[in-house]
Amino acid sequence: MKALALIGGFGTRLRPVTYSVPKQLIPIAGKPMLYHVLDLLPADVEEVVLATGYKAEVIDAYVRAHPLRWPVRTVPEAEPLGTGGGMKNAGGGISDPFFLLNSDVIASADLNALRAAHLARGGVGTMALFEVENPQPYGVAALGPEDRITAFVEKPEPKDAPSRWINAGVAIWQRDVLDAVPAGRQVSFEREIVPGLLPRGVYGFRLGGYWEDAGTPERLLHAQRLLFDDHRGGPGGVPNGAKGPGPVATMGEVDVRDATFGKYVTLGAHVTVEPGAQVENSILMDGASVERNATVVDSLLGPNARARSGHRVAGQVLGEGAEA
Ligand code: GDD
Ligand code: MG
């Protein structure tokens, strides 16, 4: 089986960092979000097709420089085509059925079990679902006998949400669902296509464990905590010369002497954290610096961003090269 990953979004909810770095390459717990998402795929997947758009060339260069376990092919869009349009554009040569992944979901899903459930029940698709308190920002499914999906509403008004089971952004579809997607224009798969597929049999696959969409600053940092707690953030501890409990994941050479690290931190390459500084529950991308006695908590520092000496940066997102 092949897998198609959607990675063409603008990452608007993670601006200003996403002005320079595509969302999928923002590191969480020591590696880019996209790489954690693809870690869910079974080892026997034959090919991963990346439907790219925004900053396609940056993603293409990154996956070439950091090979994955599977052969990877990128198919860029000249104009954003939406999730359905992106599937249609990149779906030539895809397998029947195929895995479909949103590239911002951090989860503990077993995709072998998802595949087995799909093959056992039939139908045109099986969508992994996760139960949340507030389903409003997601696609929401109503379930009938055998967990057949009887209604699907994307981003419903609170009163219109048919359940609390949301589309987890991980699914298996038969190839011919792409026939239902009109070519050459922007199409939302969730809004325009999925409801019309329900009469042909679309099933839910309920996930347990953990799940998060890492598309906003708060959820990004929550996804990082989930990954570390599931030991998907590397060996843990703190880098040489630093103090504190960690865990800290480092992605290259760093200079962090006499700095203190609380829980859940990712440090990109060439990050500097000066003596007396404190960092907790944050992501510091390549070249970022935290000067003497500064504090960074609950924050995302883009490439070469800087927390100035003695300052406290809390709950902030700093774009590339920004200072606070
Ligand atoms: N190729 C391509 N082209 N990909 C796109 C485009 C596009 O025009 N627009 C968005 N994507 C990609 C994004 O990069 C992301 O990986 C995925 O499609 C979903 O887009 P998001 O913008 O993250 O959507 P969402 O989070 O609001 O909602 C989606 O995900 C939820 C779960 O996280 C929907 O699939 C919901 O139904 C679902 O519950
Ligand atoms: Mg999303």
Mind explaining what this structure looks like?
- By secondary structure, the chain is α/β, with parallel strands linked by helices.
- The protein is built from seven helices and 26 strands.
- It folds into two domains: 2-211, Alpha-Beta Complex (Spore Coat Polysaccharide Biosynthesis Protein SpsA, Chain A), CATH 3.90.550.10; 242-318, UDP N-Acetylglucosamine Acyltransferase, domain 1.
- It has a seven-stranded mixed β-sheet, with helices on both faces. It has a five-stranded parallel β-sheet with strand order 14-17-20-23-26, covered by helices on one side. The protein has a four-stranded parallel β-sheet with strand order 15-18-21-24, with no helix packed on it.
- α4 crosses α6 (189-197).
- The longest helix is centred in the last third of the chain and has 13 residues, at 217-229.
- The protein is elongated, with a radius of gyration of 20 Å.
- The termini are far apart.
- The mean pLDDT is 97.
- Residues 6-9, 51, 53, 77, 80-83, 86, 102-105, 138-139, 154, 166-167, 169, 190, 213, 215 line the site of guanosine-5'-diphosphate-alpha-D-mannose.
**How many structurally independent domains?**
2
CATH class term of the largest domain = Alpha Beta
Classify the beta-strand content into a percent band.
25-35%
CATH architecture descriptor of the largest domain: Alpha-Beta Complex
Shape: elongated
Q: Tell me the number of helical segments per DSSP (H or I, 4 or more residues long).
A: 7
> Considering the protein shown, what is the CATH homologous superfamily of the largest domain?
Spore Coat Polysaccharide Biosynthesis Protein SpsA, Chain A
Tell me how many strands there are: 26
- Helical amount: 10-25%
User: What small molecules does this complex bind?
Assistant: guanosine-5'-diphosphate-alpha-D-mannose, magnesium ion
CATH topology type of the largest domain: Spore Coat Polysaccharide Biosynthesis Protein SpsA, Chain A
Uncertain regions: pLDDT < 50 for 5+ in a row?
Answer: none
Radius of gyration: 20 Å
| Average pLDDT rating | 97
Largest sheet: 7 strands, mixed
Strand line-up of the largest beta sheet:
5-4-1-6-11-8-12
C-alpha termini separation? 47 Å
Structural class: alpha/beta
